[in-house]
Design brief:
Blueprint (H helix, E strand, L loop, with lengths): L2 H19 L7 H7 L4 H12 L3 H7 L2 H9 L4 H7 L8 H5 E5 L2 H5 L6 E9 L2 E7 L4 E6 L3 H11 L4 E4 L3 H9 L10 E5 L3 H10 L8 E2 H7 L6 H9 L12 E2 L12 H17 L1
Parallel strand pairs: 1-6, 2-5, 7-8
Antiparallel strand pairs: 2-3, 3-4
Helix pairs in contact: 1-14, 2-3, 4-14, 12-13
Length: 280
Amino acid sequence: MNDQVMIDYKRVARAIKYINEHATEQPNLDDIAEAVHLSPYHFHRMFKEWAGVTPKEFLQFISLDRAKKLLAEKQTIEEATFKTGLSSTSRLHDLFVNIEGMTPGEFKNGGRTLEICYHLSESPFGDILIASTGKGICSLQFVESPEDSLEQLQSTWHNADLRESKDNHIENLENVFSRDWENLDKIKLHIQGTDFQLKVWEALLKIPTGRLTTYSDIAGQIGNPNASRAVGAAVGRNPVAYLIPCHRVIKKVGGIGEYRWGSARKKAIIGWEAAKEEAG
């Protein structure tokens, strides 16, 4: 990702963080632009180019106060979603992503006999490290430090041989961020996890783009209604950022919830997806 695009992303993330911290003050365009050290005109133009909507429209989609109000009125997540105008459904996660879990042997031996290729690439939300076992994508991380991300990959697959290269799975995934998703072959994931974790991740794949759900709702979907904490732990262990959309899970009381790659990035992804669904 070039420097200017990354700068714009960070400014958008800072703007979202600022508005959430000052929501009770109802900051206007001038206030937000000043917080990210841009003129109102330049900020408005840059934000619309990045997100496809104006700052005001974008923030409507990620308003936590609105989510809290709808949930407090005992409305379901589905009802709350439709009342934000997000009536279209996702194609990516319903049609294009499928999981192949590791065999017990592969899971137990930490990837012994596996050769994993990895590649640093780009996404709309920052640089990413993608890794593939040859059977499918086994890891996708947002990158702050390439060295740290590679170390994390090696610690997860401590017995595997890592090499820097690309296979068709990685190339196919890169196309997600640069081409028409409708024309992709199915994205295959080859990931390790317990039976419980795999159930949670499969449930996450059923959340349409532009929609949100809660940890307790996911627990109910997998037949363990009292397992919200365990669901939260499994969500946090998601090895494939964005494609398994753990960013779409929020707290029942309306809070944004934790995110392995930062709450500002989580808010930005939620808003970006909502804006794309509304525009589409």
